[in-house]
What does this fold into?
Amino acid sequence: KILLTHGHFDHMGAAAQIQDALSIPICMHERGREYTENPRWNLSEGCGLYIKLDDVSYLPDGSRIALERNPVFSLTMHYVPGHTTDSVFYYSAKDNVAFVGDSIFKNSFGLTHFPGGDEQTLMQSITQRILKLPQETVLLSGHTEPTTVGAERERSWYAPFLN
It folds into this structure.
């Protein structure tokens, strides 16, 4: 399966070609349609690419995604709007890892000035969903090296949002 963390072109640009080559589904949050159908929202228009995706499985928050050949391996989708209106992370409690896309990075967090972005919402998503994971959870982002929940909890910019 191709699991999209959000609908920006730098995360979904080759998804259709991979889907065709491997005959596998593309999955993303149910709010992703605006990004898959609108090159302005997925930012590809600004680069002259005009990317659209047609064959996507839109899933609700909390969806469990398992491999058919190895159902023991699974991830749970968690909705974390703010970077985009469709942002999610995929979490494996068994493996203590979260694929967080562009919501949070090592020592930083995702931009919010693109269509659908909202900094207040992103801070709430990060502090109420991502930083509530166990401290040792490894966070794998779309653009930086790995970090952990514990390391990111220490960042001062999250303090006003932590309970």
User: Anything to note?
Assistant: The chain has one domain: 2-161. The longest strand covers residues 74-79.
